[in-house]
Amino acid sequence: MLWFVLPVTAGPAVADAVDDLSDGTGLTLTILAWVAWALGLVCVALLLPATLTGIRVMAPAAVAAVIWAVAEVGVDGSATVGLVVALGASLVAFSALVGDRLVDGASYGNERRMLLRPPTRLLVTGVPIAWVVAVAGVAGGPILLATQRWVVGVVATIVGLPLAVLALRALHQLSRRWIVFVPTGLVLHDLQVLTEPALFRRTSILRLGPAIDGTPARDLTNRAAGLVIECVLSDPASLGLRTPGDPRADAELVDLRRFLFAPSRPGALLDEAEERRIAVD
């Protein structure tokens, strides 16, 4: 709903700021804004991991656009409302509930997908940098061309678009980290930590619950913050583990009976596990 009303609430402030620019630059920014808003509507309507990545890129871009507009034309009632709506849309886009709902849209049959929390170090450094590269890579070239900076604009377009694609792919990896409940148990799907998704059968899970302080369980959270869930197995499971932060390192094959992971909604995950007759403690 917040994204739907964005043109009405934030649009006037952005339009006023665009009016002060040259015709070519103003038209280019207007087209980019409407295209981003339309793509955001598609992302809100389609429940998929890819659309989760899309809305989490475009919602902060809307906030940045409104802040730029306010800086250009000054603060008034309309601009304040637009900024509040844009911030609200961004907060909703990054909420755990929305993340869960969109990744679960790719489920089929008797599946339930639940998002894992991102590594804290990436939230602080990697994600903001990748977001800037993605947005600047898409918008920078057309804006420079609109200002008739032909050589710089062509170079920015040729270089920026491939970099934007790489940045979006990197951001999308965070939308592809989840726990999948299946009829036979649960699957840990996190290719930043594992070499391949791992299935743990319901009959082999002795305990699923909040991690106990000082537990010897192997940490597979990829250093995510927040409440951590511990899974205890009756028999060791052989897993191929990657070295966090070093994708070029050789994988390590280990046998684990206890491991930790960090779902974005731990309470909802334990409720789902209990409904599926998985031992919850």
Approximate shape: elongated
Q: End-to-end distance, in Å?
A: 38 Å
Uncertain segments of ≥5 residues (pLDDT<50)? none
Number of domains: 3
Total number of helical segments? 9
Write out the strand line-up for the largest beta sheet, numbering strands in chain order: 1-2-3-4
The SSE string, one letter per element, is HHHHHHEHHEEEEEEEH
Largest sheet: 4 strands, antiparallel
Q: What's the rounded overall pLDDT mean? A: 90
Rg, rounded, reads: 22 Å
| Fraction in helix | 40-55%
- Label the structural class: alpha+beta
Oligomer: single chain
Describe it:
This protein has helices at 6-9, 11-19, 23-45, 49-73, 77-93, 96-104, 120-146, 150-174, 266-275, and strands at 112-115, 178-182, 185-189, 198-201, 205-210, 218-219, 229-241, 252-261. Helix 3 crosses helix 7 (120-146) and helix 4 crosses helix 8 (150-174). The protein has 3 domains: 1-113; 116-176; 178-275, no CATH class. By secondary structure, it is α+β, with helices and mostly antiparallel strands. The mean pLDDT is 90. The protein has a 4-stranded antiparallel sheet with strand order 1-2-3-4.
Summarize, please:
The protein has 281 residues and is α+β, with helices and mostly antiparallel strands. It has 3 domains: 1-113; 116-176; 178-275, no CATH class.
Task: Please give the structural blueprint.
Blueprint: H1 6-9, H2 11-19, H3 23-45, H4 49-73, H5 77-93, H6 96-104, E1 112-115, H7 120-146, H8 150-174, E2 178-182, E3 185-189, E4 198-201, E5 205-210, E6 218-219, E7 229-241, E8 252-261, H9 266-275
Helix pairs in contact: 2-4, 3-4, 3-7, 4-5, 4-6, 4-8, 7-8
